[in-house]
Specification:
The chain has seven helices and no strands. The chain is mainly alpha-helical and 216 residues long.
């Protein structure tokens, strides 16, 4: 009889919730991997910034420092998103308890709000869209509207990054670069200030690695 019901009506509410919880755990593990990769790439970039600073190459150091700032912001975003995945899991666990009382899944504005924010994250956007559609059909959520305010997120990150670059450089170089001025300004140094091709290559390699991770 249970097999016939599943064929006619699909999975039970309990089965649906268990499947969603499994997907949430899978997406959470993916975010963990992303954060570990970002951490490793950022550490490498920080080392390169110090090397560039030691050679007096302020321009390259500032360019790479901006990528470090963007990377830190992305790690924060991934961390918050992982916490939101956990919150959805908790809400679903509460739904399981309600199913035993009411026999059906209940509408949840909290799950809808959390899912709406997670859909914006490229790393898990597709999985969250699919899960949101399933939850909508199950009656937990209303159909999500596209968030037109997602705009200018990259521009906002860039503006904040510009404001923080000096502080990052200051911290990374024990105060040597924080007051160095604009991106085109060079620090006084007794060494020749001609372009160091090797330093440029290392900087570009680190920058591309971070950009690859940030673009997801």
């Amino acid at each position: 009889m249970q097999t016939i019901n599943r064929f006619l009506y699909g999975p039970t509410p309990e089965e649906r919730v268990r499947a969603w919880q499994g997907k949430l755990r899978s997406e959470s593990r993916q975010l963990d991997r992303e954060m570990r990769q970002l951490e490793a790439a950022t550490a490498k970039a920080r080392t390169t910034v110090k090397q560039l600073a030691a050679k007096g190459d302020v321009k390259s150091a500032r360019i790479l420092a901006k990528e470090v700032v963007r990377s830190n912001k992305q790690k924060d975003r991934l961390s918050v998103s992982k916490a939101r995945l956990g919150s959805i899991g908790t809400q679903l666990q509460q739904q399981l308890a309600m199913v035993k009382v009411t026999g059906s899944l209940q509408k949840s504005t909290e799950i809808m709000k959390l899912s709406n924010s997670l859909v914006k994250l490229p790393q898990i956007s597709q999985a969250m869209r699919e899960m949101s559609m399933e939850m909508t059909k199950a009656g937990i959520m209303e159909e999500m509207l596209e968030d037109t305010l997602q705009m200018d997120e990259d521009e906002e990150i860039e503006e904040e990054a510009d404001a923080e670059v000096d502080k990052v450089l200051f911290d990374l170089t024990n105060g040597k670069l924080g007051l160095a001025g604009s991106a085109g300004t060079e620090l006084p140094t007794s060494q020749d200030q001609l372009e160091d091709e090797e330093a440029e290559r290392v900087m570009e390699e680190a920058r591309k690695q971070l950009n690859g991770l940030l673009s997801g």
